Amino acid sequence: MQLKSVEWPIQAANWRDFSQLNQLERACFPPEDLWPFWDLIAALTLPGLVRLKAVVDGQMVGFVGGERDVNRRLGWVTTLGVLHPYRRQGIALALLAQCEQDLAMPAIQLSVRASNQAAIDLYKQCGYTVVRLWEKYYVGGEDALVLEKRR
Ligand SMILES: CC(C)(COP(=O)(O)OP(=O)(O)OC[C@H]1O[C@@H](n2cnc3c(N)ncnc32)[C@H](O)[C@@H]1OP(=O)(O)O)[C@@H](O)C(=O)NCCC(=O)NCCS
After folding, report:
1. Which one of 3, 60, 87, 130 would you pick to mutate in the ligand 1 pocket, going by the greatest count of ligand atoms within 8 A of its CB?
2. Cβ neighbours, 10 Å, residue 135
3. What is the pLDDT of residues 44-61, one digit of tens each?
4. Cβ distance 68 to 77 under 8 Å?
């Protein structure tokens, strides 16, 4: 199902979003890439993290998480996902831009499966370049590309 441009305000997420984030992650990622329960809780509760959701009719349709290493002046995008019916409308672009702004670090990095061309295209469009390759990083043995954006 492809929806025509709907309103999707971006809001701060919190622990009350656990159930919807859990569902969104399961819809967006293969089982081997799902975060364990406590990582989801941490993403929604630990201080200092960025957690943003795109919302349509009270439902989370997209989510981005970010954290920062202040000593290294480095931000890290930890997860980004958009539900299928809401894709190709710019929601990931908007979530990522807000996450980068909230992280407020001179450099931001993330990792992505080397085969995830949709995400790689998205990140390159946003100014990220490949800076590293982590061999066999993911479950199943796939390499990770580490991408970086300097601001
Ligand atoms: C990757 C993902 C977050 C993109 O979400 P989205 O809201 O559809 O992305 P956007 O609409 O903001 O797309 C912005 C640009 O990214 C690129 N892009 C996004 N999806 C793409 C696809 N399936 N194929 C090719 N390019 C794609 C395009 O350049 C697109 O611009 P365009 O639509 O004008 O061509 C979404 O497909 C998703 O949730 N995938 C599964 C989870 C995942 O892989 N997350 C990233 C892990 S690192």
Report:
1. 87
2. 9
3. 999 999 999 999 999 999
4. no
CA 148 to CA 130: how far, in whole Å? 6
d(CA 75, CA 133): 18
Q: The tokens of 144 are what?
A: 């990770």
Q: What is the pTM of this model?
A: 0.95
Task: Name the pairing type of β-strands 74-82 and 144-150.
Answer: unpaired
Ligand 1, pocket residues at CB < 6 Å = 28-29, 80-82, 87-93, 112, 116, 118-119, 121-122, 125
| Stretches in the chain below the pLDDT threshold 50 | 1-4
Q: Which positions ≥6 away from 103 have C-beta within 8 Å?
A: 50, 66, 67, 68, 75
